[in-house]
Amino acid sequence: MILSDYETQALLLSLKVSATAVLWLLPIGVFLAWLLVKKEFWGKKLVDSVIHLPLVLPPVVIGYLLLLTMGKQGVIGKFLFEQFGLVFSFNWKGAALASAVVALPLMVRAIRLSLMNVDPKLEQAARTLGASPIKVFFTITLPLVLPGIITGAMLSFARSLGEFGATISFVANIPNQTQTLPLAMYNFIQTPGAEFQAARLCVISIIIALLSLLCSEWLTQKTQKKLGVSTGNAKGGNA
């Protein structure tokens, strides 16, 4: 399957945008999941609901809100531009931001479920032996939730690949700059006689998403086996 330069650029941009979105989401997702599982505070349910809003809001609404807040004249975007020269609207970084926002609930939910399954006795034992909270987190908690982090990262990557509504609302559909696979497909669908190109990009999107999910499953199982062996050895040593 030989792609044209136009299709190749859209594919490479999609991979770049999705990978960047996942990298941005990893620390945010881990922190928010930890906050929701380990801490009790006023407004916790509200925070949880806001995090999951992208699952139920129309993507166009998300894109419009990003334009209002992160655009060059937006509340936050104007400050970032004037102080640091950062611009998100109408460039690939804005596409990555839009993808990160819509994928955030998937990342947080996957890590949160893993955190809920961590045995608190392991963390308490480490604290009893004198480990600081930060050391407990990085040496006990984080390795145990690694399967959830992998799952969240892969799901977020696949979701970012398919992002359309928020992206086109926030950064438009500019070839070589913001035109990802879904946007290129949209162009082909609207172009008479370009059905084959649209179908080809559709197949490529499905293959990449499927590979992401299969890779997630394989990495998760492999990590769980390693953690199972390590936990088993630790229990054996304690016995």
Automatic annotation (TrEMBL):
<dbReference type="InterPro" id="IPR000515">
    <property type="entry name" value="MetI-like"/>
</dbReference>
<keyword id="KW-0813">Transport</keyword>
<keyword id="KW-0812">Transmembrane</keyword>
<dbReference type="GO" id="GO:0015098">
    <property type="term" value="F:molybdate ion transmembrane transporter activity"/>
</dbReference>
<feature type="transmembrane region" description="Helical">
    <location>
        <begin position="198"/>
        <end position="219"/>
    </location>
</feature>
<feature type="domain" description="ABC transmembrane type-1">
    <location>
        <begin position="11"/>
        <end position="215"/>
    </location>
</feature>
<keyword id="KW-1003">Cell membrane</keyword>
<feature type="transmembrane region" description="Helical">
    <location>
        <begin position="90"/>
        <end position="115"/>
    </location>
</feature>
<keyword id="KW-0472">Membrane</keyword>
<dbReference type="InterPro" id="IPR011867">
    <property type="entry name" value="ModB_ABC"/>
</dbReference>
<dbReference type="GO" id="GO:0005886">
    <property type="term" value="C:plasma membrane"/>
</dbReference>
<keyword id="KW-0500">Molybdenum</keyword>
<dbReference type="Pfam" id="PF00528">
    <property type="entry name" value="BPD_transp_1"/>
</dbReference>
<protein>
    <recommendedName>
        <fullName>Molybdenum transport system permease</fullName>
    </recommendedName>
</protein>
<keyword id="KW-0997">Cell inner membrane</keyword>
<feature type="transmembrane region" description="Helical">
    <location>
        <begin position="12"/>
        <end position="37"/>
    </location>
</feature>
<feature type="transmembrane region" description="Helical">
    <location>
        <begin position="49"/>
        <end position="70"/>
    </location>
</feature>
<feature type="transmembrane region" description="Helical">
    <location>
        <begin position="136"/>
        <end position="158"/>
    </location>
</feature>
<comment type="function">
    <text>Part of the binding-protein-dependent transport system for molybdenum; probably responsible for the translocation of the substrate across the membrane.</text>
</comment>
<keyword id="KW-1133">Transmembrane helix</keyword>
<dbReference type="InterPro" id="IPR035906">
    <property type="entry name" value="MetI-like_sf"/>
</dbReference>
<comment type="similarity">
    <text>Belongs to the binding-protein-dependent transport system permease family. CysTW subfamily.</text>
</comment>
